[in-house]
Amino acid sequence: MDDIWQAPIGVPLDLPVATALPPVPLPPDAHVDQLIWHGDGIGPDARVYVAARDAHTVTVRIAAGERVVADLRVRRGPARAPQPHGLLGPGVTRRPTYTRRFTVGEKHTTDHVPGAEPVLSTPTLIAFMEDTAADVLRPHFGPATASLGTWIGVRHTGPARIGQTVIVTAALVETRGRRYLFDVRAAADGRPVGDGQVAQTLISLE
């Protein structure tokens, strides 16, 4: 079985792929730092290769043909225990959700396709998602506390036009110290507009 710490980048690995988590076997003394799903599932034609590497982490990519299914970031050493930070009051538990509605205005659209009707831009969609995720945390902020968006992994899957209402839902799925990871989804007129994950990190303003 190939060693992910030594394998050449981009070369298929001799690793079994499973539908369980983690989807590939981990080396000894390593843990999953982050798992990002890009596709709908792992099929029989899935292949695995190292997509990136630094001194402490390796990103193992699962692909099916030209389609990227998932990126698994593996970090050396045991998983770190969350450290208490005292920046939030009580009340934030696993999988709280929050939903917001945004009306698409002219300032929210992009018109870079000649002759096409202006539609909601991807940066604005991401901003809607990040703001909704932050709203899960805001009611629980301690004194002099704020949050910043520190990671995004979002697909923009459908258009939303001027005047339409975009409904965004954020659900907290993981907490690591001051970092909070959310599943986010957006829809307009009952039709999916985007989905993915965003992270918010708490900061002290003192």
TrEMBL record:
Offer one Pfam family short name for this entry: FlK
Q: Which CDD domains does the entry mention?
A: hot_dog
- According to its UniProt entry, this protein's organism is Dactylosporangium salmoneum
InterPro entries named among the record's database cross-references: FlK, FlK-like_dom, HotDog_dom_sf
The protein depicted here goes by the name: Fluoroacetyl-CoA-specific thioesterase-like domain-containing protein
Q: Which residue intervals define the domain Fluoroacetyl-CoA-specific thioesterase-like in the entry?
A: 104-204
